[in-house]
């Protein structure tokens, strides 16, 4: 629950991909109309964090041991805490060693446990899941695909990484079809994935092999938004009426889509150590179906 004044304070301090699923206008009206007061409690926001890559060591981020900790501190400093936080994959950096993979997940969980918000959700990235079909991820974080509802919004978490071939697969598509069949065509639906569902740059692994089948299932629904990670930068794309929005990374930025032959990390800038890193504020108002975005750096400084 948040009113517009509190929200503006929140945006001033920065930090967090923030989604407001209610109506500021409705909330303000509720303060002067007791009969509408109950509707004010529908407003909420959440924080999206992505591509932490805990365990990474290299020139692309010499501060890798501290960047995630700084992010946790920034989110905890928000004046109004979100209803929940979701990590959209690549919690850890890939390793061929199963024991080391689990140790990295344990290290990630220890830092994430410092978040004030206790409802924290996770989906895997290919670094977490593609080498063991999601086995270690499930041991630590539970199912790789799931749904939940929150204050009138239906959330769907999809797994497009546990298959090393970047497919969602027929079983998960059937599961999605069955879930969507229970929703009204004008239901407010938010989808979380790691890879983009559309072909952004397939040669860079920036696509989902059967993502077009997911989009076909979602297309009959009029209020669908997709949030994803993987590409380590802000990016926005439309497939029909469905909006797709990528979040920045918390470890290192990657080049613009298709701008070079290989997707090598952008060089670390010692003069601006958090350049290209951070997360996003997303605002939605019922009177205007478009979402408003503001990107924030990892730290408040």
Would you give an account of this structure?
The protein is α/β, with parallel strands linked by helices. Helices cover 27% and strands 21% of the residues. It is built from nine helices and twelve strands. The strands form three sheets. The protein has a six-stranded mixed β-sheet with strand order 5-6-7-8-10-9, with no helix packed on it. A three-stranded mixed β-sheet has the order 1-11-12, with no helix packed on it. Strands 2-3-4 form a three-stranded parallel β-sheet, with no helix packed on it. α9 links the parallel β7 and β8. α8 (170-180) packs parallel to α9 (211-218). Residues 1-41 have low confidence and may be disordered.
User: What is the first-to-last residue Cα distance?
Assistant: 27 Å
The class by helix and strand makeup works out as alpha/beta
- Tertiary shape: globular
Would you identify the regions where 5 or more consecutive residues have pLDDT less than 50? 1-41
Question: Secondary-structure element sequence?
Answer: HEHHEHEHEHHEEHEHEEEEE
Portion of residues within helices: 25-40%
**What number is the mean pLDDT?**
84
Strand content: 15-25%
Spatial sequence of strands, sheet with the most strands: 5-6-7-8-10-9
Radius of gyration: 19 Å
Count of DSSP helices?
A: 9
The number of E-state strands comes to 12
Major β-sheet annotation: 6 strands, mixed
């Amino acid at each position: 629950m948040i009113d517009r004044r509190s929200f503006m304070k929140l945006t001033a301090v920065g930090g967090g991909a923030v989604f407001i699923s209610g109506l500021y206008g409705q909330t303000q009206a509720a303060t002067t109309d007791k009969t509408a007061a109950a509707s004010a409690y529908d407003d909420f926001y959440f924080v999206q964090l992505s591509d932490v890559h805990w365990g990474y060591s290299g020139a692309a981020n010499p501060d890798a041991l501290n960047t995630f900790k700084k992010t946790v501190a920034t989110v905890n400093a928000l004046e109004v805490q979100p209803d929940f936080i979701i990590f959209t994959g690549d919690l850890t950096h890939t390793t061929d060693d199963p024991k080391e993979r689990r140790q990295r997940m344990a290290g990630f969980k220890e830092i994430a446990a410092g978040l004030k918000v206790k409802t924290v959700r996770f989906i895997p990235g290919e670094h977490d899941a593609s080498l063991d079909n999601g086995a270690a991820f499930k041991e630590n974080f539970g199912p790789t695909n799931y749904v939940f509802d929150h204050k009138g919004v239906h959330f769907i978490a999809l797994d497009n990484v546990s298959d090393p071939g970047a497919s969602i697969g027929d079983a998960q598509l059937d599961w999605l079809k069955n879930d969507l069949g229970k929703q009204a065509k004008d239901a407010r639906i938010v989808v979380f994935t790691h890879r983009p569902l559309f072909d952004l740059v397939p040669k860079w692994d920036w696509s989902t092999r059967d993502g077009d089948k997911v989009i076909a299932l979602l297309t009959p629904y009029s209020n669908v938004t997709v949030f994803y990670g993987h590409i380590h930068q802000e990016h926005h794309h439309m497939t029909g009426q469905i909006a797709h929005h990528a979040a920045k990374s918390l470890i290192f930025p990657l080049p613009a889509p298709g701008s070079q032959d290989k997707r090598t990390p952008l060089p670390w800038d010692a003069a601006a150590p958090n350049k290209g890193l951070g997360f996003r504020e997303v605002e939605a108002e019922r009177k205007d179906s478009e979402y408003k975005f503001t990107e924030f750096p990892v730290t408040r400084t």
